[in-house]
Design brief:
lipopolysaccharide transport protein A fold; 712 residues; mainly beta
Length: 712
């Protein structure tokens, strides 16, 4: 034992005279400058560990030869295996015969007959790579030559042939990819497809990442019977507190396709800007503030809904709404005060001209946080808003409002009963401008207006809790009486007071008046929770009933009953129902049933409503469901379904499966989707049927191949 330790010590000292090298072995023979080691030989060199049956090291020439079962481990991320390796430590050269490299991060191996390297740049001759079991790989890529850079962790292969088992599938003259998780510029996996109405679809993403603080993805695509286009995405980080994304896309439609579907636009284009900064006052203006500032930007513009639909070959990402919203929000907050500015712009994709759409450019907000007085018995805060309601054509308005609630609260009967009295002070003012229509007089509906009122709210409630052997129960009861106080209105608010009671019929009311009457009423609330001993919710239940005292209003408002029942750790049920006493019907209900365990996930949702619009009943009934089943570690089955019962329209459906293994994935799914389009006659839709084939070679990535048939 002592002899072995002495040999290790002497060998390490001798080797360390010129190079940072350490040699460990049970048997060491030193003859001048030549060191021979056998039996459990380990060589440590900088960040590498090498093992072999036998090692010969010449200190004068700095050459090392390793024989038999050679294993080199670098940074715990790469393994190099060979039968014979020769290296020059001073010149940083290596020779392997044969050569086998395993990337532990990417779970990918590369094998060749021989390989040589100089200063970390490897040259390989006639080899194979795969992510599968080296003994019998399901797929492999053969190459005639390759080179690899240890610094960039990038492998280039030439004259590559993709094989499944021994069957050749694809030839590429060149293929390059990284062997680490750093970003690298290059080509991403393409998307392929075929459609009876759009022809062959091909998209080839190009990824550019030359700097650490930004990257760019270009996605040119061609649809042989429809047209061609380019979509792009630029991501960037401009400071430690901010990041952003810029998107742009353009697609040129062929005339034959336009005429077939009567499309409204010869080309589809748009852009998007997303940006967040959590300290923009300091980083942009250099202001040293005691509070926090923030900026959030999400700007989206497009000339056509097809801009969204053409951005991907996945129909489930198609646009399902006819309105696109752009927002720019900024704020500054301190201990007691908050100031915000919010810009909202709405783009209606069902119309060609958006000049008459009302925008909020901007909304200014001031909020004074809650203040307490009289030993926390008196509470108050302040909210102020200014809305600039703007559009290029038509009436515009500048509307401001203020809300000041004053609350006096206390508890009685040993805190069993909580009492509070609140006075809500509300005021608003509006002025108009914009372009008058030819049939409008100078002063018609353009009068400024002022409105003010106060409201009384008296509340009494209790909160009770009790613990049992297996569960705990909490219950809350609350009664709130609302009494309308005095109000004052003039100008626009006074002139439209009666006319604007029905918000569903007049645009002037919904856009500018938007004042709801405060009627005397009592609102009764009941809620309860049941928890198990671990604190998991078993049951949540809530009841709300409004009782009105206005003779023009129904005495009993709609009764709301909400319940969430977690039957067990996997099974849960949710329901929210509104019952109308006068009509003696359920006017709205939402039901959700879900089941989830380690292998099965299922949800079923249904929503129904029956509302009155000018005494005419309007119905909606909508079903959505989704299922995901993990049969075993390889097979997964999934599906979803959405149906509009009232209009008898299937919105979309999916059914599919995915087979997953360590080195490859294969999946297929059938999709039906009803997507909107804008035609020369207005908004319309096309019903599409798709077959998607998903294929991935790990760790290279994968692609989806689709076949689409449009019903029109």
């Amino acid at each position: 034992m002592y002899r072995k330790l002495l040999l290790l010590f002497i060998t390490s000292v001798l080797l360390a005279e010129k190079e940072s090298v350490e040699l460990f072995s049970n048997s060491v023979d030193v003859n001048g400058s030549v060191v021979k080691a056998t039996d459990d030989v380990v060589l440590l060199k900088q960040n590498e560990l090498l093992q072999a049956d036998r090692i010969i090291y010449d200190r004068n020439s700095s050459e090392v030869e390793l024989f038999g079962n050679v294993l080199a481990i670098e940074n715990d991320k790469f393994k190099f295996v060979s039968e014979y390796t020769k290296m020059n430590i001073k010149k940083d050269t290596q020779f392997f015969e044969p050569f086998f490299m395993l990337s532990l991060n990417e779970n990918l191996w590369v094998s060749s007959k021989e390989a040589s390297s100089c200063q970390g740049n490897f040259d390989l001759k006639s080899g194979i790579t795969s992510g599968c079991d080296p003994e019998d790989p399901l797929w492999k890529i053969e190459f005639s030559s390759a080179d690899y850079s240890k610094e960039n962790k990038w492998l280039n292969m030439y004259n590559t042939r993709l094989h499944f088992k021994e069957v050749p599938i694809l030839y590429l003259p060149y293929l390059g990819f990284p062997l680490d998780d750093r970003r690298h510029s290059g080509l991403l996996m393409p998307s392929l497809g075929f459609s009876s109405d759009e022809g062959i679809y091909y998209e080839q993403p190009i990824y550019i990442a030359s700097e650490d603080n930004w990257d760019l993805e270009l996605r040119p695509q061609v649809r042989t019977m429809r047209g061609a286009g380019l979509y792009s995405k630029l991501r960037f980080v401009d400071s430690k507190n901010s990041f952003g994304e810029v998107k742009f896309g353009y697609f040129d439609e062929k005339k034959e396709y336009m005429d077939k579907y009567s499309l409204a636009n010869e080309s589809d284009y748009g852009f998007g800007i997303h940006y967040e900064n959590s300290d923009f006052l300091s980083s942009w203006l250099g202001l040293k503030t005691s509070g926090q500032s923030g900026l959030y930007t999400d700007i989206n513009w497009m000339n056509n809904v097809e801009y969204i639909n053409l951005s991907t070959n996945d129909t489930l990402k198609s646009a399902t709404t006819s309105q696109v919203e752009s927002v720019v929000n900024m704020f500054y907050t301190e201990k007691k005060d908050y100031i915000g500015a919010y810009f909202k712009y709405f783009r209606d994709l069902n119309i060609q001209d958006n000049d008459t759409t009302l925008q909020k450019l901007p909304t200014l907000q001031y909020h004074h946080y809650l203040e307490t007085f009289l030993n926390n018995h008196l509470l108050t805060n302040v909210d102020m808003d200014i809305d600039n309601l703007y559009r290029p054509q038509g009436k515009r308005a500048l509307q401001s409002q203020i809300n000041i609630p004053l609350t006096l609260q206390s508890s009685v009967f040993d805190d069993y009963l909580d009492l509070s009295y609140k006075v809500e002070l509300h005021g608003r003012q509006i002025t108009f401008g914009g372009n008058r229509q030819p049939d409008e007089t100078k002063d018609e509906n353009y009068n400024s207006g002022t409105y003010a009122r106060y409201t009384n709210i008296l509340s009494a409630g209790t909160h009770l809790s009790r613990s049992f052997e297996k569960v705990s129960h909490t219950m809350s009861l609350n009664a709130e009486y609302l009494k309308a106080g005095e109000s004052y209105d003039s100008g626009f608010y006074k002139d439209n007071r009666v006319e604007c009671k029905d918000f569903s019929t007049l645009d002037e009311c919904t856009s500018f008046y938007n004042i709801s009457d405060i009627n005397d009423a009592t609102q009764l609330k009941f809620s309860q929770y049941i928890f198990d001993k671990k604190g998991n919710e078993l049951l949540y239940h809530r009841l709300v009933q409004r009782v009105a005292y206005n003779p023009l209003e129904e005495r009993l408002g709609e009764l709301e009953n909400e319940i969430r029942y977690n039957i067990n750790s996997s099974f849960s049920f949710y329901n929210d129902t509104f019952y109308n006493h006068q009509r003696e019907i359920i006017t709205k209900t939402v039901n959700s049933l879900s089941y989830k365990n380690d292998s099965f996930d299922f949800t079923l949702n249904h929503s129904y409503s029956n509302t009155l619009n000018n005494s005419v009943e309007q119905y909606s009934s909508y079903l959505t469901t989704a299922l995901n089943y993990q049969y075993d570690k390889h097979y997964r089955y999934f599906g979803d379904y959405q149906y509009d019962f009232e209009n008898q329209i299937k919105k979309n459906s999916t059914i599919g499966m995915m087979y997953t293994k360590k080195c490859w994935d294969f999946g297929v799914r059938l999709v039906e989707n009803n997507r909107p389009i804008l035609t020369t006659a207005g908004s319309s839709s096309i019903r599409d049927h798709y077959i998607y084939f998903t294929f991935a070679l790990k760790p290279f990535g994968g692609s989806e191949i689709l076949h689409k048939i449009s019903d029109g």
